[in-house]
Write a structure and sequence with these properties.
This protein folds into 3 domains: 3-247, Aminohydrolase, N-terminal nucleophile (Ntn) domain (Glutamine Phosphoribosylpyrophosphate, subunit 1, domain 1, 4-Layer Sandwich), CATH 3.60.20; 256-422, Glucose-6-phosphate isomerase like protein, domain 1 (Rossmann fold), CATH 3.40.50.10490; 447-593, 3-Layer(aba) Sandwich (Rossmann fold). β13 (221-226) and β14 form a beta hairpin. The protein is built from 19 helices and 25 strands. The strands form 4 sheets. An 8-stranded antiparallel sheet has the order 3-2-4-1-10-9-11-15. 57% of the residues are buried. With 607 residues, it is α/β, with parallel strands linked by helices. The termini are close together. α9 (275-287) packs across α14 (399-418) and α11 runs parallel beside α12 (350-361). Bound molecules: fructose -6-phosphate. Fructose -6-phosphate binds next to α10 and α16.
Length: 607
């Protein structure tokens, strides 16, 4: 939700680096962009609605002068995406410029107060009150940092923000509460950004700012303090391990395609977890009187798959819960005996963190599974695991879903062992199959893509898709549906196949494509029954089934044949891959950018 980037260089123009940083943050929002630089003692701002490329060409942003600057790529929350609402926003006299990611909940009240004091507002955003508050504070207190600190103390809501001012033109001041912010340290300068990929081209040395911290960046160094009492915090940088190449598109047309094809590697990495942390999570899970798996969107689908895996392998009932529903549904019943395993790629999703906060208040044990080292989730969890997928830039989650499932499976296997629920032979067999998964996924990528391209062409004009699966494949169906609808905007339904006759079947008519996920397993005869019911109503059946499964193949109009021998319980990982590719291909046919679906942003850090 909005990307922010600030940079202060020893020499050279800062604008090209800001633009480069914003391009790497575009996945967080792309409604409008804006840059402010400081030169000859004044702030210059160029901003507009549109993509980075369009606005840069129109306003020649890369020619802006100055070695200090801030930039913003917006995902609109308050006010339409237009030039006036684009960040940066300024005070009355254009001496303070602010970029902001987050939501200021009490902005209307503060705005009214400022209007009464004579401030004039141009935009409909919540952000614009921040430079005006700082301006007001500067009347009492001439030091920028102190004015900002006082202003921040009046804000209710979430923010990651960066401020420059012509009154103190040698610095960027940035701060965070509930929205992510990371600092980058290099020999040429200092950076602040919403996420590591934006600063990775310039340095691998980063510092994760924590909630309620403010940093002052100058060419010769940085200082971090607590917003509440100005205590100075001494924190050294961490070195990022992944390379710049890993966060770039390389030869692929889109990040989404690159990330789909990276899965054999990301899955292999997901198998190299640190034993002692898996053991720790396992012990906490074992002690729980009840276990809830918490996540939003794709992470929720990984949790749904996880609930089948925990139940079948470790005989542990683990309820999957949508993060935004957690407090209403379980907020009053959880307590000291509850264990919450929160799953979040970014580790910054507002709904998930809010649920986690609530769980902690009720003394529940919170565990985390995330892809983001240094994220808020890692700090609020009693113990956590990093899923090792590497950076995911495409807005639609692909490789991070399969990694989440492979990590959850390993935890479930450990738990099964601890609880003595599987024999050694069974454990060995599952482990062997787990290590086969990256190879199965590689085979699927190599063998099915051409077929999927032709299936996509065949169904390009369909106005509705259904996704059905039984057992654990209902999680695959839901994730397949989410991929297709979020990047092609085609309405889709997904249900456990058994539910279809309780309502969804009424939408089935001639030629409606219905995707069945049918790995070989205990639900096989039922899924065949469901296919026949849907087929009898004239639907087109697209089956994802095991190679040579003649019964299913005969019932289907189109088939994607999967490698033999994939156990049902591990099937969501390889079986989601053709559905990721199908969504990608349909988006291309519809001339949509799969990396930037409308109205979406990768990291949802607002309520
Ligand atoms: C869908 C997608 C989203 C995220 C959701 C949770 O492709 O990416 O549904 O899965 O916003 O994000 P995290 O996992 O970062 O908490």
């Amino acid at each position: 939700m909005c990307g922010i980037f600030g940079c202060i260089l020893k020499k050279g123009l800062v604008a090209p680096q800001i633009l480069d940083g914003l391009k790497r943050l575009e996945y967080r929002g792309y409604d409008s962009i804006g840059v402010a630089t400081l030169h000859s003692g004044i702030i210059e701002i160029r901003k507009d609605k549109g993509t980075i490329q369009e606005v840069t060409e129109k306003l020649k942003i890369n020619e802006m002068k100055g070695t200090i600057g801030i930039g913003h790529t917006r995902w609109a929350t308050h006010g339409a995406p237009n030039m006036i609402n684009a960040h940066p926003h300024t005070d009355t006299h254009g001496k303070i410029a602010v970029i902001h990611n987050g939501v200021i909940e009490n902005f209307l009240e503060l705005k009214q107060e400022l209007i009464e004091k004579g401030h004039i507002f141009l935009s409909k955003t919540d952000t614009e009150i921040i430079p005006h508050l700082i301006e007001e504070e500067l009347k009492q207190n001439k030091i920028l940092k102190l004015a900002i600190l006082n202003a921040l103390k009046r804000l209710i809501g979430s923010y990651a923000l960066a401020v420059i001012s012509s009154l103190e033109p040698d610095k960027i001041i940035c701060a965070r509460y509930e929205s992510p912010l990371v600092l980058g340290i290099s020999n040429d300068g200092l950076y602040c950004a919403s996420d590591v990929p934006a600063i990775r081209p310039y340095t691998n040395k980063v510092i994760y700012l924590r909630n309620g911290e403010l940093a002052t960046l100058k060419v010769d160094g940085y200082e971090i303090i607590k917003i509440s009492d100005s205590t100075v915090i001494h924190r050294d940088f961490e070195e990022i391990e992944w390379t710049l190449q890993e966060s770039e598109k390389q030869d692929y047309d889109h990040y989404m395609l690159k990330e789909i094809f990276e899965q054999p590697i990301s899955l292999k990495n997901g198998l190299w977890l640190q034993e002692q942390y898996v053991d720790l999570l396992t012990q906490f899970l074992d002690r729980g009187k009840e276990v809830l798996l918490l996540g939003a969107g794709t992470s929720n689908h990984a949790c749904i798959a996880g609930s089948y895996i925990f139940s079948k392998l470790a005989r542990l009932t683990a309820y999957p819960v949508i993060s935004s529903e957690f407090i209403e549904c379980y907020g009053s019943s959880i307590g000291i005996d509850s264990v919450i395993l929160a799953v979040s790629q970014s580790g910054e999703t507002y709904d998930t963190l809010k649920a986690v906060d609530h769980a902690r208040m009720r003394a529940a044990t919170v565990l985390g599974l995330t892809n983001t080292v240094g994220s808020t989730l890692t700090r609020v969890s009693r113990a956590y695991l990093i899923q090792q997928s590497g950076p995911e830039i495409g807005v639609a989650a692909t490789k991070t879903f399969t990694s989440q499932v492979i990590v959850l499976t390993q935890i479930a296997l450990k738990l099964a062992k601890l609880r003595g629920k599987l024999s050694q032979d069974e454990l060995d067999e599952y482990e062997k199959n787990l290590y086969n998964i990256p190879y199965w996924v590689e085979t699927v990528l190599n063998r099915t893509y051409l077929n999927i391209k032709s299936i996509a062409k065949k169904y390009k004009n369909s106005k509705l898709f259904l996704f059905l699966g039984r057992g654990i494949s209902s999680a695959t169906a839901m994730e397949g549906r989410l991929k297709l609808l979020e990047i092609t905007y085609i309405p889709c339904l997904a249900y456990p196949a058994g539910e279809s006759k309780h309502g969804p079947i009424s939408v089935v008519e001639e030629k409606v494509p219905c995707v069945f996920i049918c790995p070989k397993g205990s639900t096989r005869s039922e899924i065949i029954g469901s296919i026949m019911e849907i087929k009898a109503r004239g639907a087109r059946i697209i089956s994802i089934c095991e190679e040579g499964d003649s019964e299913i193949i005969q019932l289907s109009d189109d088939v994607v044949e999967m490698p033999k021998g994939i156990p049902d319980l591990l099937s969501p990982i390889p079986y989601i891959v053709p559905l990721q590719l199908l969504s990608y291909e349909l988006a291309l046919i519809k001339k949509l950018d799969p990396d930037k679906p409308r109205n979406l942003a990768k990291s949802v850090t607002v309520p």
